[in-house]
TrEMBL record:
InterPro entries: Cupin_8, JmjC_dom, RmlC-like_jellyroll. Keywords: Signal. Residues 1-20 form the signal peptide. It comes from the Eukaryota. Residues 124-284 form the JmjC domain. This is JmjC domain-containing protein. It comes from Desmophyllum pertusum.
């Protein structure tokens, strides 16, 4: 087993969180956790939203409850969708710069890394199973839009971004692994099927004698494997522009089902780590069998305690904009402010006419309308003009003017001689 710094840090976090006192937000923690288990066991697919959701909804309904979520086509308008070609990426990374690459997708993300020039990666990846996973360049960051659901201090303050790329063959899978941070996985190009398992069921998962944080022997038949062993799991089919929220510590298995795949992974540390006392007890990391069992037990306990803890309030100062920060045509304002922005129905020499100025028969050139736009003769002129011409001004002015007319005035308008015919 390879025990690197990442493995040790995760184990330390889990032991620290799960060895202390439990602080529940419910009177009966066990019953509360059972409700979460029942919900996961009754689902088979990840919950979906057809669009990007607000930071409040994302935080309180999903992050605070560790509920995975797919936001469909939330990144469909990123410039990256059009400009991230092979030539563009080689230029962006600089031809000679080194990128981090994992050999064999089944070894991703914790396997040993190669460091290759970006151009060499693209050449070799046509013949070898190579997975690029590295920080995007500043130029690439300008091609992404920060997800609306993450535009809060809790998410963005320690946000990290990774770029994934693979082009070798279709239907290839990662190991089953978990990540200690919250994640938002975004499909820029290609497609994927992601299978998720809650940490609540970690102890039901099989051990891999070679690894601690991954279970590599589960391949593309993972759904059949999990189903046959009665392990609750969720699946999500992702396509170009989709975003998937993967909660902290959740087991995940990714099958890439296209010849060329590009992903962006946002991840950030959880701001809702259980407020528990640390322990001075230590474990012998060389005892692999007991360590694997202990790790899965700790993952379950961590998730149970997370699900029953209190939720800190969300702080989004950049989202909290007042209506006074915007300018509207309606509302009480000074004459100077009104004059600066007004483009309404009044006919005066100082303000523009909403009808077609280039048409000499339009109300813009009917003098009576400048004296009183609500005069019956002006309204009669506008009615006749609009019956003959397709003019944007008719849609803007006419409803407002007619809405002010009473029955007597309308009868007067319909019986008067045509000012339009007389003027033209």
């Amino acid at each position: 087993m390879v025990m690197d710094c990442h493995h040790l840090c995760v184990i330390f976090i889990l032991f620290r969180a799960c060895q202390g006192e439990l602080h529940c937000k419910h009177e009966d923690c066990g019953d509360s956790t059972s409700l979460y288990k029942e919900r996961y066991e009754s689902q088979t697919v990840v919950e979906e939203s057809p669009y990007m959701i607000s930071p409040d909804d994302f935080y309180y309904k999903f992050v605070a409850e560790h509920r995975p979520l797919v936001m469909r086509r939330a990144a469909k308008n990123w410039p990256a969708n059009k400009v991230w070609t092979q030539d563009y990426l080689i230029q962006s990374f600089n031809e000679g710069s080194q990128v981090s690459v994992t050999k064999g997708i089944q070894n991703f993300p914790f396997g040993s890394k190669l460091h290759l020039p970006i151009k060499e990666f693209f050449v070799r990846s046509m013949q070898e199973d190579l997975m690029l996973c590295d920080k995007p360049t500043t130029q690439m960051l300008s091609d992404m839009t920060a997800p609306l659901c993450l535009r809060c201090q809790q998410f963005m303050k320690k946000m990290k971004v990774l770029y994934w790329s693979r082009q070798y063959q279709s239907d290839a899978s990662t190991s089953l692994f978990f990540h200690p941070d919250e994640q938002l996985l975004t499909v820029v190009n290609g497609s994927a099927k992601v299978t998720l398992v809650s940490p609540l069921y970690s102890e039901k998962l099989p051990f891999n004698p070679e690894e601690l944080l991954t279970i590599s022997r589960l391949n593309t038949d993972i759904i059949l494997k999990l189903s046959s062993e009665g392990i609750p799991h969720l699946t999500a089919d992702l396509h170009k522009g989709d975003m998937l929220y993967i909660p902290q510590m959740w087991w995940q298995h990714v099958t890439l089902s296209a010849d060329y795949n590009q992903f962006v992974q946002f991840f950030w540390p959880s701001k809702m780590t259980p407020n528990l006392q640390s322990s001075s007890k230590t474990k012998d990391l060389n005892q692999l069998p007991s360590m694997q069992a202990s790790l899965r037990s700790l993952l379950r306990k961590y998730e149970e305690r997370f699900l029953v803890m209190g939720v800190p309030p969300l702080d989004c100062p950049l989202q909290d904009k007042r209506m006074s920060d915007y300018t509207f045509e309606t509302g009480k304002m000074s004459p100077e402010e009104y004059q600066a922005i007004h483009n309404g129905p009044d006919f005066t020499e100082d303000e523009p006419c909403n009808f077609d100025m280039s048409n000499q028969q339009s109300p813009c050139h009917f003098d009576t309308c400048f004296e009183d736009a609500e005069a019956p003769i002006c309204i009669r002129y506008i009615l006749e003009y609009c019956s003959r011409w397709e003019d944007r001004g008719c849609a803007i002015e006419l409803p407002q003017l007619l809405n002010k007319m009473d029955k007597v005035t309308m009868e007067q308008i319909t019986t008067m001689k045509s000012p339009y015919l007389q003027a033209n």
